[in-house]
Task: structure prediction
Amino acid sequence: MFATPDTVAALRPVAAAVLASPLTRWWAEPVDLDNQRMIGRLHSNDEEWPESTLPYRSTAVGLDQWRDHVLAMEARFRTWRAERPDNAISGEWWSTPLPSAALQTSRARDDVGALELLLEEDSFGGDQARVWPVSIRRTPRVYEITNPTDWARLVDAYPLDVVESKRSDWFDTTGEYHDWFIPDWAAVADDYDAVHLTLHGYLTTPGLAIPLTRNNGATVLAGWNPDTTWWLNNDVAHVDDEPALWRWSDDHWVRA
Result:
C-alpha cells in the first residue's frame, strides 16, 4: 500500500519535512563511539536477573564457526529442496552475524538508556532490561550503511552465497527469486572492526531485493535494528561491569 504512486506522492513532502528538521540530522550520522550501549532482557516476567551483573562475553567472536553454520544450512536446504521441490521451507531469514558472539550495540539518546529499547525490529518482549555502557578502546575501522548502495557494496566485496537457505523467506519478503548473497562476516572482520546501520539506512534499505554489481544476484538487509552496530572484533569494544536497570512503565522506558 505504501509503495503505490499516489501514496508515495502524498508522503513525499512529509518525509522531506521530517528529514529537513534539525531533530533528525543525527539519523544519518556515523556510529557514536562515545555513547554506545548494550542491552540484556528478561524474556518473561517469571525470570529473575542473575546475581552477577557482569555480561557474558566470549573471548572470540566465532565468525569462522558462523560461516561453517551458514554453509551447513545451505547444504541442508539444498537437500530438502531436492527432496521436496514444491515445499516452501522457512529458515534463518536474517543477514546479521548470528549465531555468533558478535556484540550488538546502539546509542543512548534523550533519556533513553539505549535506542534498542525503543527501536527493535523483532522484540523478545519483557518489561525489564539491563543497559551496559560500552567503551571503545581504540579507533575502530567501521563500515557505515546509510542506504541500499552501501549494503550492496559490502556484500559485493565479501559475498557469501545463500541462495538455498534464503530462497523461500526472501521470496516472501520481496516477491522475487534471485541468487541471494549476504556478507561473509568472517571475511569482513579482516578489514573492519564493526558495521553500523544508521537510522536513515534502516528506513531506506531493509526488505528490498538489492541488485549486486560484481556478483550475479541480489541481497536483502534483514534482521537489523535502527542504529545498530555489530562489533566483529571483541578486543575493540569493552562492556563495562555495572549496568543500569530500566523498566517499561506507562508506555515508556524509565530508569529504575
The mean pLDDT is 90. Residues 35-255 form one domain. The chain has one domain: 35-255. Residues 74 and 165 are 5 Å apart (CA to CA).
